[in-house]
Each structure stands twice: as C-alpha cells, then as structure tokens.
Write a structure and sequence with these properties.
The protein is an alpha/beta fold and 372 residues long. It folds into two domains: 179 residues, Glucose-6-phosphate isomerase like protein, domain 1 (Rossmann fold, 3-Layer(aba) Sandwich), CATH 3.40.50; 146 residues, 3-Layer(aba) Sandwich (Rossmann fold), CATH 3.40.50. Helices cover 51% and strands 15% of the residues. The strands form two sheets. The protein has a five-stranded parallel sheet with strand order 2-1-3-4-5, with helices on both faces. Strands 7-6-8-9-10 form a five-stranded parallel sheet, with helices on both faces. Helix 6 links the parallel strand 3 and strand 4. The chain is globular.
Length: 372
C-alpha cells in the first residue's frame, strides 16, 4: 500500500459520515493497479468471446454509452477503437441516447452500455433502446446482483471486480483498461494491427499497473503544493486533447465530488476560441493534461498564453517534457505510452489531485456533504 500523506490522513481522521469518503477513495485509487492487472487476465475469455461473435457481423461503428464516470470512460476510450480496431467510435451520454437515439445504432454497430452500479437510472432506458436497435450490445457493470440488466440482457457482459465506495475512481480506470484490451483484440482479429504491433501494445497495456504504482508513489510533492494552492480557489479550468478530453471531464466531476469545486473542462482547441482565455484571471488554477500526442502542441500554445495571463498551472506531462513543465507551477510526470493508453495514467493522477484538494479544504475547516 502506498504511504498516505499527512494531509490526507488528517482528512480521513476528521471526516464523519460523508458521501464518497476520502478514506475509501484513497484505498480504491491505490488498489487500482492490482485490480487492473487482475481484470486484464480474468476478463480475457469474455473478450475473446465478444470478438468471436463480432467476426460473424459486418461491424463498422461502436457507440459507448454511460452517465457520469461511465460516460467519461467512454470518451477516453474512443480513440483506442478508432486507432486499434479501425471502428468509428462515438461516446454518448446514456440519457441522451435513450431519448434521441442514433442513426448509426443498427446491425452494423456495437453498443457498449456502461453502468458501474447497475442501479435503476435512465441508463436502463438506454439499454432498452440499444437492444431494440439490432446492434450487438455489450454490458459492463461492476455490481453483481440477481436481475442486473447490464449483466443479464446484452449479447455479452463484462463484470469487473472494481469497487466504488469512495469517489468514482477505480471503476472508471479499470473499465477503460478493459475497453483498451477489447480494442486491441478486435484490431488484431480484423487485421487493423499486425501481430508484432499487437504484442507490443498488449505488453505496454500490461505494464500500466506497474507504472501506476510508481507514479502514485512519487506524485506527493507536486500534488501537495498544487492541492494547497488549488484548495483556495473554487473555479478551475481543465484542458486536454484526444483521450484526455475524457479525463478533463472526469476531472470536472472529481472536483465536484471531492472538494465541491467547479471544474470547467475544455478540449484544447476550445480554449483558443470565444475569448476563453479572457475568463482566466491571474492566479486562477488551470490543469493541463498534456502527454505527448497529436494535440500536444496545441496544449503547449495554450500553456504559453496561460502563463502570460498569470494562471497557476498544474501540468500532467510525460517524463523529460519541458515545453510545458518549464512554465508550470506544479508538474506531475507520467510515463510515455501510445496515445490511446495515455488516459490510463493521467486519470489516476487527476483522481489523486482531487483528494489533495479536498483534504486541504477540510484542513481549513470545511465539512464535505453528510449522508442524511
């Protein structure tokens, strides 16, 4: 287990009966590497069964549906299906799909419906519409109970062992890792990637848990200073590109769930539009999710602008990166991986950042929402 920093330990000891406790959130983030490692192995047979089923169909598209962290996991995973499996991938908010549907939801589509809890929500309605569309439906739910429709009604279902007693953290990252594996196996099966590339990418995926342990064990200094400063500011801007747009949206939710702050998520190009920069004042905290990738240079340009504006920049970048790191106030370095997998490293970093923000706010006398 990773050593708990004093600021977080103090928060754990002072919390009462609150929603999404810091104690559970910390434990679930720290256990994520082991759960990923376990689930990549234990879900192998069902992933192979899914790919065998899809071999019999002319699949062109994949829609990924969810609400909250399940939707953010969908957003962060689409590029894996685009790049590795050659499918057009679309993330949709589950309620929006339930009421509006999609013209590409048909016999040539796969629809992944994600509900970690499996509890009755409008995602049940989205599942109904997905099944009625004629698409091949995959359900993902961490919660096993008799009658869980996400495990019982789809063509195939995946039931990871991730838990969510704290903030949505472990469940999101584990689901993303399994979607990445599904994309890789699909890509190998349909010859979108060759055997050599498949083995290299799969090896990279299986190394992620070890990289996460190292990352989470060494981010305290950067996140301590970022959390102390950021806890004094209610409004945060969060910028990412590619799969890290999904992480930006997850960060926005995590800021609401942890310290009860407002996080404004932006795809990097949107920062450069509509005078967005004029909404950032000197001293405002901005989180940049900037591993190397196709959108990296545009984040560098945003960083230059934000530095001129006097923003307090928290950056998540790859090892040895300096264009952004040299300008940032706090920097967390993550290993460089193929871009579709980068969110598996940036997301747990953001999850931990939320804990530092919340813990620092608690230290100043704030009480998080109590369970009635």
């Amino acid at each position: 287990m990773i050593d708990m920093p004093k600021i977080i330990n103090n928060a754990v000891n002072s919390e009462k009966n609150v929603w999404m406790p810091i104690k559970d959130s910390w434990a679930e983030i720290c256990a994520t590497p082991d759960v990923i490692r376990k689930e990549l192995q234990s879900q192998e047979s069902v992933i192979e069964e899914i790919v065998a089923d899809l071999r019999k169909r002319e699949v062109r598209n994949i829609l990924l549906l969810g609400s909250g962290d399940s939707w953010f996991a969908s957003m962060a995973s689409c590029y894996s299906f685009e790049k590795y499996a050659g499918l057009s991938a679309v993330p949709m908010q589950a309620y929006e799909f339930a009421v509006y549907g999609s013209n590409i939801a048909n016999e040539e589509s796969v629809i992944v419906v994600i509900s970690s809890s499996g509890r009755p929500t409008t995602t049940w309605d989205a599942l109904d519409r997905a099944i009625d569309s004629g698409a091949y439906v995959i359900g993902i739910s961490d919660t096993f109970y008799e009658g869980n429709p996400f495990l019982e009604r789809p063509n195939k279902s995946i039931n990871p062992s991730a838990t969510k007693f704290g903030m949505p953290t472990q469940t999101t990252t584990v689901t993303m890792s399994l979607l990445t594996k599904l994309a890789l196996v699909l890509g190998k099966d349909n010859s979108e990637i060759d055997g050599k590339m498949y083995l290299e990418l799969m090896d990279s995926l299986f190394v992620i848990p070890d990289q996460l342990i190292e990352l989470l064990s060494n981010c305290e200094d950067a996140l301590s200073s970022a959390g102390e400063y950021g806890s004094l500011h209610r409004l945060h801007t969060i910028i990412g590109s590619g799969p890290n747009v999904g992480v930006a949206y997850a960060a926005s939710a995590l800021l609401a769930e942890g310290p009860q702050f407002t996080g404004h998520p932006l795809p990097v190009e949107e920062y450069h539009h509509a005078l967005r920069g004029c909404t950032v004042l000197s001293g405002d905290p901005v989180l940049l999710l900037a591993p190397y990738g196709k959108g990296y240079q545009r984040v560098v340009e945003a960083c230059d602008d934000l530095k001129t504006l006097g923003a307090y920049i928290v950056a998540v970048v790859n090892d040895n990166e300096n264009s952004i790191a040299d300008l940032a106030d706090s920097v967390v370095y993550v290993p460089e991986v193929d871009e579709p997998m980068s969110s598996l490293l940036t997301l747990p970093t953001v999850q931990m950042y939320s804990l530092y923000l919340a813990s620092n706010r608690i230290a100043s006398g704030y009480e998080r929402p109590l369970v009635e």
